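Hi W., the adenosine-5'-triphosphate complex you wanted:
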Amino acid sequence: MSTIEATSLTKNFGSFTAVRDVDLSVGQGEVVCLLGPSGCGKTTTLRMIAGLESVTEGEVRIGGKLMNKISPEKRDIAMVFQFYALYPSVSIGGNIEMPLFRAGLSAAERRREVARVAGILQLDDVLDRLPGQVSEGEKQRAAVARAIVRDPNCFLFDEPLSRLDVELRHSMRGQIKEVLSGLSKATVIVTHDQLEALTMANRIAIMRDGMIEQIGTPHEVFSKPRNIFVAGFIGSPKMNLFEGRFSSLSGDMATIELSAERVTIPVPSAVSNMQGETLTLGVRPRALEPVDSPNQHSLTGQVELIEPMGAETLVHVRDESDQDLRVVVPRHIKVIIGEVLHLACDLSQTHIFDGKGLAVR
Ligand code: ATP
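Structure:
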């Protein structure tokens, strides 16, 4: 069975802990992305699963079997790296064929398998060309073809698209996702590009300082971030975060004192015993809407910078406490620099984090 399981996985390099107590379970046919800032331990986690890095503590299981002491080539996994290292003097077809050759398949079987994966990855027309004679996207697809051709138990990808230009990344994301969904294998993809994770993954594990901060579907990590770090990391432009204090509670509506103004928003019942406590209010830039006059759910500030983004416009508003507020409005809404904007919060999209930075649910 194609599954990957990491339990309490820890990696120390000398006295430095690069990965700490990571639990990860990837089911058959599931794609899990490890996402996080540079140095958070994504690649080290992937390398431990692959067997390229020893495990300090914890267990790696592939297909239910303990792998800690098994060498990489015996783990029945295929890896695709950022530097896909095709042999330059061997044709694209020859590069794809290589793992089959090593596995001892006959010439006829090799031809049939190469043709099959070349069909999946639309490489049929370039099989006879050398890597130097094909595009970057075709090279990347050839690397994926070489990984999937021998039908391994699971796949590990390390920043597979980071060398491609924006346009190509966009189309390759879709293509790889489609190929993976047809293969029904457990797959782990390392990326620092949230758009890549949001579009390719069934679930995303967001890492920081060697630990998983939250794991969930793209929708879950976006709409229900567990803490301030995840809230600020996922979503573009970033979520607005305001420090404040619970002032009063009336039913399920709480009035929150920010440094320069007050805003009233709905809160979960758990909040009843938090009056007077400090908190952070989170509002995504698309959950703020300009309104004609201030109300109890609105924030106010002056337009400082306008960034057209095509169908939408990103507006930077400086509020009275001198905080930069990011607001995304449809292009047809005209704003001008210096204008005072009243911005109503979409009450279904506000987030509250307690003094420790954890979401209040
Ligand atoms: P990036 O996105 O920049 O590739 P990452 O999240 O993949 O980063 P890792 O490569 O897993 O991060 O590294 C995690 C931490 O472990 C980093 O601080 C890194 O410097 C450190 N590290 C990685 N390999 C070694 C090593 N062989 N010896 C010592 N420290 C290491």
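The pocket of adenosine-5'-triphosphate is lined by residues 13, 16, 18, 36, 38-44, 192 (CB under 6 Å).

W.
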